[in-house]
Amino acid sequence: MVEIDVQIPTAFDPFAEANDSGAPGAKEYVHIRIQQRNGKKSLTTVQGLRKEFSYEKILKDLKKEFCCNGNVVQDKELGKVIQLQGDQRKNVSQFLIGAGLVKKDQIKIHGF
Fold first, then answer.
1. Which end is more exposed in the chain, N or C (fewer Cβ atoms within 10 Å of the end residue's Cβ)?
2. What is the mean pLDDT of residues 58-81?
3. Does the keyword Protein biosynthesis apply (predicted)?
């Protein structure tokens, strides 16, 4: 008789990676979005930064670095959100990576 070594495939668990990271949900992402205002005016929003960071200090550095105005808005569902004038999506992502606040794979850029 010939013995055949057969491997039975196991079920694929799509949430296995999230459980390994130790996070309660999925990966903690920082979302950088753009919102169109009137005409060609736009607004860049940053949400998902860790709560232990000082949003006001981050905002101060962003405003000084990119020569734009901005503020921190408290939202019921999203928590604190940083808003900046203009399309600053790429600038903000490079700043956050360069400052060591987040890793490149934790940033999601949305819009257009």
1. N
2. 93
3. yes
Question: How many contiguous H segments (helices) and E segments (strands) does the chain have?
Answer: 3, 5
Say if residues 88 and 68 touch (Cβ distance below 8 Å). Answer: yes
Q: Which of 96, 99, 111, 77 is nearest to 30 (CA)?
A: 96
Determine contact, residues 57/70, Cβ cutoff 8 Å. no
- pLDDT reading at 85 higher than 80: yes
Region of residue 22 (left: phi > 0; alpha: psi -120 to 50; beta: else)? left
**pTM: predicted TM-score of the whole model, two decimal places:** 0.73
Within 13 A of 111's CA, how many CA atoms are on the CB side?
Answer: 17
Contact between residue 9 and residue 87 where contact means Cβ atoms under 8 Å apart: no
Chain segment 15-31, per-residue pLDDT in tens? 555 544 444 434 689 99
